[in-house]
Give the backbone structure.
Amino acid sequence: MPYVLGVDAGTTRTTAAACRLDGGGDAEVALVVPSVLQLTEAGTFTVGEPGPAGWTATGFARRIGDDVPLSLGPETCSAEELTALLVMWVIGEVATRKGEQPRHVAVTHPAGWGPYRRGQLHTALRAVGVHDVTLVPEPLAAAENHAARSRVLPGAKLAVFSLGSHAFSASVVKRTQHRTFELLNHVEGVDHHTGADFDDLLLALVRGRLGADASVSAVECEAAKRALARPAPGQPVVVGGVEIGRDDFVEEIRPSVDHLVATFLRALGPAQPDAVLLAGGACRLTVIGDALSASVDCRVLGEAAPEHSVAKGAALAARLVVLGPESEPEPLDTSVLVHTREASLRFPVGEVERPDDDEFTTPPPRPPVDVPPLELPPRRVRRMAIALKPGGRRSRSDSRDDDEDGR
């Protein structure tokens, strides 16, 4: 059956969502895979499987536009080339499962990216054979996901609070008369704690009771954090032999949460949003929704798996590119307290930026820096694209309810 695909390449995990073209306008998660590329000694690439140091690349999706390449064994390639290879693999993996290629693909990116970074990603995607692609800002994808489930009237404003494992952002979008969305304001967090930092704070809490030499793994701390994120207070979680209660953990991360909320409120400015949308796996922590609800005079809405909201919204945006806007659906509001399955984000369909234009190929001006020139070997993205074999299917690529901090 014909479908379109949305791909959200996060720092920790990459999520793909599919949306059918011959049925309802809802999107479903099709694949979740760690954002890891490994170059093997045989010259092939695998996806989602960490390998030896120096042969594995992680965290490259947010480095697009960086002039410094990444080294993988004897190869060097840019962040946009690695991201394009990962997107190409995801498209191929979903196509194998569904038996056909998607009609169109939407790939998300941070709202703060300018024409240069978007153009770099477009060029890299074309180099690996991905041509029918639209780039969608992440907050617009989150809003599109919301609009699919709840009616959003023209002029309505939505705020997007996005918190993943390594990134935080706050955005405000507005519904236009043409049932599209436009970005009004956006702030990228720099010195803010994110999901990975919450793991570190939990580790510090445990070591504070056991001593600095306590042996506690990062995996154990992340699992304990997920257990402590559940809405209803439960039994204390045992970490490294120490019982940690939910109140203890909330008290430990409270200053970090207050900092995040304060930055979010500054991003809002005078805007009075109709709702706040939660996106990113770290938003599973109920303390996030509670702090936002106490600070804004509107609903705070988040899905049971907020780390998938952006990918599903991207798939809905791709559907709009292919089919155009449909008649306004009847509202299907399933909100319960902080969690909801709403979806509303009419991606502004129109002329897609052309990467061949000068503004897409010329990097933004930078202050002069006296740095000795470094001669780099020629890029080999075409050969590497051929070497990207389906060996990555051995990785954990299925969606699971306990996946967190997907961004």
In short: Residues 134 and 352 are 7 Å apart (CA to CA). DSSP finds ten helices and 18 strands in the chain.
